[in-house]
């Protein structure tokens, strides 16, 4: 999704802006651009490219731009195709320049009005209306900051913006509503960025804007104003470097590195959260026991992979704690008039903490009668973690690859801990909790063992390269895992894949099964195994080719049309976490064989900050 970076200082900023942009690459984008002010005359030099930040770097190496203040952008096309003229920074008459992340929902009306007043547009984007609006207020006699504040009041939708004017040299005006934007405080320089990570090389001191606030930056100071133009005092926060290195560490792709980091990320998320026999209740905040004791129902929301984690949690929470639990797609929840059971806990899941739909779901929950709002997130400075009543860190470490892997397994671990603490408040037997906690202690080693399936998955992947469709089946907690396996395959390799509850097969999808259709089954040994085995017979009877992930001794008989992949045996509650790993490896290796852009698949973004 679009990324913003800006810097104003006493030294040249080109390298700073490019470094910031390269740190935002993980969010996904299709074009990039930079505008730097010539501080002696206020004019801007701008370069924009369709493609990667590296192309911008190459062009600027040939022809560098000097200047000590500038803004830069990576664009993920929403309005108007990826092209140079649609790329940011946008510029008006060489005097005003803008970068924008988000969507302006009333841009068609604004554009028509501006055109009627004689404005001429150079791009197809919604963003360009902002430059025109601000320019009109400047023409009316306002300074840049005041013009941005007035311009914002005309905008509907979500945005994070950075603007510069040739009249106010060395000044950046930044503002946000519903999209992420942070301010970095440096020495003789100040910065704006879409996240803390983008500014990590320059500072560890940050200011966080609230929605509808505006910041005015120059090399010496940052001043924040509210939507009415009143100055706001905001404390600087130190965000320490957590030692997250953004390199591939010898792996071919970030995704491969992140798949292999899972034993460590799971170890990290468990650290201090379990004793030898139980889950530490304070993991979920000081008031956790009180809140969980009062909780009579849960609503868990998330998007994509985070939603699948919510679905697994629903099985755990209802099974272990016997508390009714709803799992919802955030984009549906936000527009649904959901009936709210008494004493409900609202829980959002989000790796980035900036998914626009999940934030909107939280905002809705804040207006409803929820007992408490909680978030499990991976970015401690994110909107969802900051704005929920309590927040729990996944501790997955930075996830760069667009496709989520280690964030999914760590959030599952945290959700299981939550289910256990909730269960304890409902009289769940201590012996059973002890048994699961003992199994959790061995989980990182189990994951190491499953990663040993890498070569097998590499070979198996060859059989899938020419397939157009793949069906994934599971039951119980493994039904969401089947959907997660299908999602990983479609986003990485562009192969059509569906995840289905195996019991639903005969209600429709069985019609698709023939000799060309691979069917992947997630079938660990548990109380549903016999049921899954019968469902798979239905596939065999139609000539479908089966790939069964199961553990030793489950009596699946391999054959020409049945491939068995043995997964190490694990406590039945933990199996959804363990069975996720081979499906990640399979999708990854199919994508490697197909030669797709694994870390940044086409059309999708890491941090989905627009609706
Ligand atoms: C899929 C994937 C997405 C995200 C979704 C939510 O691999 O990564 O489906 O899970 O966009 O993102 P977060 O968790 O950041 O809210």
Can you give a write-up of this model?
With 611 residues, the protein is an alpha/beta fold. It is 35% helix and 22% strand. It is built from 19 helices and 25 strands. The protein has an eight-stranded antiparallel beta sheet with strand order 3-2-4-1-10-9-11-15, with helices on one face. It has a seven-stranded antiparallel beta sheet with strand order 5-6-7-8-12-13-14. Strand 2 and strand 3 form a beta hairpin. Helix 7 runs antiparallel to helix 15 and helix 17 packs parallel to helix 19. The model has no long low-confidence stretch (mean pLDDT 94). The structure holds fructose -6-phosphate. Fructose -6-phosphate binds next to helix 9 and helix 17. The site of fructose -6-phosphate has 14 residues, from helix 9 and helix 17.
Summarize the model shown.
Helix content is 35%, strand content 22%. Strands 3-2-4-1-10-9-11-15 form an eight-stranded antiparallel β-sheet, with helices on one face. A seven-stranded antiparallel β-sheet has the order 5-6-7-8-12-13-14. Strands 17-16-18-19-20 form a five-stranded parallel β-sheet, sandwiched between helices.
